[in-house]
Sequence to fold (415 residues):
Amino acid sequence: MSTEVSDYRRREESIDLSVRTQPAEGAEQELLTLNMGPHHPATHGVLRLLVTLEGEVVRDLKPIIGYVHTGIEKTAEDKSYWKVIPVVERMDYLAYYFNAMAFCGAVETLVGVEVPKRAQYLRVIHLELNRIMSHLVWLGTSALDLGAISMFWYCFREREKILDLFEMSSGQRMHTRYIQVGGVFEDIPVGFMAKLKQFTDQMPARIDQFAALLDKNEIVLQRLRDVAAVDEDTLLALGVTGPLLRATGNPWDLRKAAPYSSYDHFEFKIPVGTVGDNYDRFKVRMAEMRESVRIIEQAAAGLPEGPYITENRKYALPPRHELATSMEALIHHFKLVTEGFRVPPGEVYYPIESPRGELGCFVRADGSSKPARVHMRDPSFVNLQALKPMIQDLYLADLIATLAMLDPVLGGIDR
Fold:
């Protein structure tokens, strides 16, 4: 053994680990305040978190938003009602069918338009497909935050199948403008139902595979179980809804509590958790995907015959083939495209259950063809309040996992 090595061994053995330096009584621990984001992949968008750390423990947290602000609500007030739809769809960019549904539902309530049953069922099919798609993006990106990159590819593989269905029914993969005032853009094409059935037949097995990969993974369980638990009363006081609230055991879901678009015609369960930790949030969303498949299967099997949009030409564009033969159809088409339709004075709030909770649209009409006021109650904005009580006094690594389980979408937060 050389002299240098033996000298090192002597010094190593001389270290007394039993003696630890204690801070002076009353001395303040050093706190470090740093920015996480706005350009950070784990923030799931352009979110800035001002984090105060004591070592690796989060002592305080302040979300700072506004980096992706688009002014969607004010833009909507400068457009005719039917031209607002593609604008609001870009709010929560993972739940564009829900954004359109909330706005169209509010306008339909104001003008008193009755949506045909076939259109209601077609809406439900596309809404639940969109819910599964949103949860797949959440699952893939959350697993990526925990270090499981394979799950990202598996989830996006299934997401592509849903986008193929959207493209088939509307011509677009994202921001489809499929839901219209009074119904939907177009009836489903030939072959859509066969492709939909193929998806619903495969998806339950895919969910089982995802659960087999994650639900017995020791790393995932240690990162999620008993981490960031928040009780039901705290979340209710903050106005938190959706999977975050249901993870505490509260079964509040607007599809059951205040059914819309014929949701009361379908049999499905509301998944709930027990303690409201990250693991419960994970399990609730996984179970929700299974229930969405059940709803889609029922809606497809019982799809009624009839029109796919209201036959009231004052609010819906006439079929294109009528324009060459009907002067009345040509007039209605010209008026709707150039001026839009007028909505009688009034105001309404129309809430629905989005993948992240209660998404509500408030519309005030003044009798003109443009809304006087449009305001969206986006669940991501409200739910972001819960991040601080969830993560306070936990580790920085837990902040990454908890933010993933929160599932925020910054387009909806900033609007």
Q: What stands out?
A: The first strand starts at residue 32 and ends at 36. The radius of gyration is 26 Å. Residues 117-145 form the longest helix (29 residues). Confidence is low (pLDDT under 50) at residues 19-24.
